[in-house]
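Cross-check.
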Amino acid sequence: MQEDKDLVHEFVENGGLSCLIKVGSDADQNYQNYILRAIGQVMLYVDGMYGVMRHNETIQWLYSLTASKFRLVQKTALKLLLVFVEYVETNCLLLVQAVGAVDNNRGAALWSNVMNLLRDHDSNSGDSELLIYAMTLVNKVLNGIPELDTYYDQIDALEEQGMATIIQK
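Predicted model, tokenized:
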């Protein structure tokens, strides 16, 4: 993909993202890392980023990987989510939709994956980079939400899970 940008367009248009997600969902951490790198390469191109924006399952999968037991998978997923929300502000709402889909499907509170990362910072072996990515993602998403009802729904979910306590630490 680095050498042929037309490949990215064809990859996205022919269901490549769905294929990656399907393979990545059942893969071990090594394959997940390879797939995350591939998604990162796809996102570098306008066609690729627009493909990801139209394919909420990719964003859902990236968010679900923030709950991985493997630190590198978590960190890479958070980095890609940051790239996604920084691309255009409207992507914040697409991430909110993805978070809602994943967490509602699991019967969990909104943003529970990220909150678990932040809450378990003592067991994160001092990985401050992971915590910075997680907090930056939350802040950027909240900052990019244009409608008050959605904003306060997210804030309420974070506060109910102890965000105030986390911030004090």
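The chain has one domain: 5-168. Residues 5-168 form a domain with the Leucine-rich Repeat Variant fold (CATH 1.25.10.10). Passed to J.P. for a second look.
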